[in-house]
């Protein structure tokens, strides 16, 4: 999976490329992150990337030309290397809220270019001419798109076969089956008079699977009831699931 990231702060992405699961995936060439700074594609000596907004108002607006020059360089690199260019994605508050399903869709693209905005906004003409989709991580404002891009990239890289030590880890993550994950426990067996549930100690795999499914349903019902309705609408709940939900 290849990510091209247009950002004024490429150094921030070392947190993704050098550490943890994502760092190992990059090291093993399962994922690659290519950083593009619009200042490198400016034509003026001061490398200006922003200017005042027409009509007045607070803050500065990122200019079209530096961003468009950067995107052209990204596309030229793809063409030279025979890479099938994927969508260009702007991180923006008005974008569709990111989800596990979108993470799976991005993985299927094979390549995605993120545009990380800064300042007050990006000139709308750049958006209209170049952006294929817009994504958000929630209804709040960040200083720029970098943190949102890294969060999305982390979610996608986890799905790449071989990125996780155990291939079942991604399959069993929260939201994969439409529900929240079940509780997890490790040693010691008793901590401050709190014990690991007996069913997890018995070695009966079918009973453990049933317990985990019920706990997943219970947590989702209590914390995110909206996910229950979505799972029901998608036909992800069994007759046994519905019976257990009624008991709650």
Automatic annotation (TrEMBL):
The keyword Transmembrane helix does not apply. InterPro entries: Alpha/beta_knot_MTases, tRNA_m1G_MeTrfase_C_sf, tRNA_m1G_MeTrfase_TrmD, tRNA_m1G_MTases_N, tRNA_MeTrfase_TRMD/TRM10. Specifically methylates guanosine-37 in various tRNAs. Its EC number is 2.1.1.228. The gene is trmD. NCBIfam families: PRK00026.1, trmD. This is tRNA (guanine-N(1)-)-methyltransferase. It holds the Pfam family tRNA_m1G_MT. CDD domains: TrmD-like (cd18080). The lineage of its organism: Bacteria, Pseudomonadati, Pseudomonadota, Betaproteobacteria, Burkholderiales. HAMAP family: TrmD. Homodimer. It comes from the Bacteria. S-adenosyl-L-methionine binds at residues 117, 137-142. One of its GO terms (biological process) is tRNA N1-guanine methylation. One of its GO terms (molecular function) is tRNA (guanine(37)-N1)-methyltransferase activity. Keywords: Cytoplasm, Methyltransferase, S-adenosyl-L-methionine, Transferase, tRNA processing. Residues 1-229 form the tRNA methyltransferase TRMD/TRM10-type domain. Gene3D superfamilies: 3.40.1280.10, tRNA(m1g37)methyltransferase, domain 2. It catalyses: guanosine(37) in tRNA + S-adenosyl-L-methionine = N(1)-methylguanosine(37) in tRNA + S-adenosyl-L-homocysteine + H(+). It is found in: Cytoplasm. Belongs to the RNA methyltransferase TrmD family. One of its GO terms (cellular component) is cytosol. Its main location: cytoplasm.
């Amino acid at each position: 999976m290849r990510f091209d990231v247009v950002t004024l702060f490429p150094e921030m992405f070392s947190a993704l490329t050098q550490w943890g699961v994502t760092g190992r995936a990059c090291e093993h060439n399962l994922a690659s992150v290519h950083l593009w700074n619009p200042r490198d594609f400016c034509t003026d000596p001061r490398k200006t990337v922003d200017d005042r907004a027409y009509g007045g108002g607070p803050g500065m607006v990122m200019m079209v030309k530096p961003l468009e020059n950067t995107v052209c360089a990204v596309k030229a690199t793809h063409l030279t290397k025979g890479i099938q260019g994927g969508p260009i994605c702007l991180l923006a508050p008005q974008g569709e809220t990111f989800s596990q399903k979108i993470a799976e869709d991005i993985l299927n693209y094979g390549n995605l270019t993120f545009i990380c905005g800064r300042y007050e906004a990006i000139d709308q003409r750049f958006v209209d001419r170049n952006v294929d989709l817009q994504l958000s991580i929630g209804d709040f404002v960040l200083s720029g798109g970098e943190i949102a891009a890294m969060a999305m990239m982390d979610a996608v890289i986890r799905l790449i076969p071989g990125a996780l030590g155990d291939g079942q880890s991604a399959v069993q993550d929260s939201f994969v089956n439409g529900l929240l994950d079940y509780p997890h426990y490790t040693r010691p067996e008793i901590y401050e008079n709190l014990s690991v549930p007996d069913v997890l100690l018995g070695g009966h795999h079918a009973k453990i699977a049933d317990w985990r499914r019920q706990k997943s349903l219970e947590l989702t019902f209590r914390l995110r009831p909206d996910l229950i309705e979505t799972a029901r609408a998608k036909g992800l709940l069994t007759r046994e699931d519905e019976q257990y939900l009624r008991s709650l």
